[in-house]
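Hey, can you fold this one?
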Amino acid sequence: MIGEIGLSERRACALVGLSRDAYRHPPIVDEHTRQLRAKIIDVAHTRRRFGYRRVHDMVKPVFPGVNHKKIYRLYTEAGLTVRKRKKAKRPLGERQPLRVAQAVNDVWSMDFVSDSLVNGRRLKCLTVADDFSRESVDIAVDFGIGGAYVVRDA
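Sure. Predicted structure:
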């Protein structure tokens, strides 16, 4: 714009949104940054599921003193983004309405309830309730309730 239209440097930089200092001194990529960019690209291509934070952890021993912000800037400039995993599509099936309980012991429901102890361990409870009388039929309490325990023969 300065050369073709004849605008002043101050006016042209204001229109573009560029500081005059940045116009006068364009960025110069030094050899250290080139090597860092090459290492980031190399790590990102060998470790496809690594984001910029884990790439930073891999590059840190070779380039000490480089912070994560510079790694992120070079990572995004190179177009290296980890692709989001697609959710597994579940087959669509006919949903059947729940049976309404007509008498005691006709329909039971079960659910898991958990709580934590003072020392941090999780306590799990498998509760089985009668839908008609709303009475608790059974409560199994343990630190871990496996699937084999839940589906075992009564």
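The first strand starts at residue 108 and ends at 116. Let me know if you want another pass with a different chain boundary.
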